[in-house]
Amino acid sequence: MHPVLDARLQAVLELIQAEVHADIGSDHAHLPIRLLREGRVRRAVVVELHPGPLAQARRHVVRSGLEGKVEVREGNGFAPLHPGEVDSASLTGMGTGTIVGVLERAGKRLPPTLVLQPNDSPRSIRQWALRHGYHLTAERLTPGYWAYPVLKLERRTGSDPAYGGVPERAALRYGPHLLRQGGALLRGQVQDDLVRLTPLAAPGRNAESELATAQEALAFLDNPT
Ligand SMILES: C[S@@+](CC[C@H](N)C(=O)[O-])C[C@H]1O[C@@H](n2cnc3c(N)ncnc32)[C@H](O)[C@@H]1O
């Protein structure tokens, strides 16, 4: 079995290189199977909360012939892992709120490297990273049903250099690396936000500050300094 990854999971795969990696909320287990096949990780742990996806992950791991290198565990977030057991982890295809909730509950089980692919705005993941000593070391925006963001976080000391020289509000919403990279996908996302938010913006409304953030992002994309 050699699963084909869609663009978002391919981008996630390319950001992972570890001895032992955990894929939390793996479902089909395609990502850990490909990580092992390509030698990007030596061993993997799959964590799944729900019985249907858990059974599917187990079936796919058996079919891949990689049972000796992937362990499938039932449980919530990082709870089935021991502190220090993995040096890297991914959470993909989930809402930002779910991902942040899992990170908040992880405590000492959190590994030094995280690769995250939320299905909606990753602003609160970026805010979580700033509060918890993780630097945003890489970002991708991949095409799909929506434009899917992929974030790589690494535990580091000091302030995160990723935010230097980019407007902060826009960087938290759209991504400091993504703003610097520019690109049609991000520009399209910002322009869609401008169209959607313009009729909603009124003094004191959330849409007003979201609109100002999108305008700030567009100004930076037009004239990066
Ligand atoms: C939409 S699927 C994404 C599957 C795969 N990661 C991907 O990107 O294609 C989300 C999976 O996360 C699992 N999940 C949700 N919350 C979880 C949690 N707290 N701990 C472990 N698994 C969880 C769900 O059971 C589901 O299988």
From TrEMBL:
InterPro entries: SAM-dependent_MTases_sf, TrmK. Gene3D superfamilies: Vaccinia Virus protein VP39 (3.40.50.150). Pfam families: TrmK. Transmembrane segments: none annotated. It comes from the Bacteria. SUPFAM superfamilies: S-adenosyl-L-methionine-dependent methyltransferases. This is tRNA (Adenine(22)-N(1))-methyltransferase TrmK. It comes from Deinococcus hohokamensis.
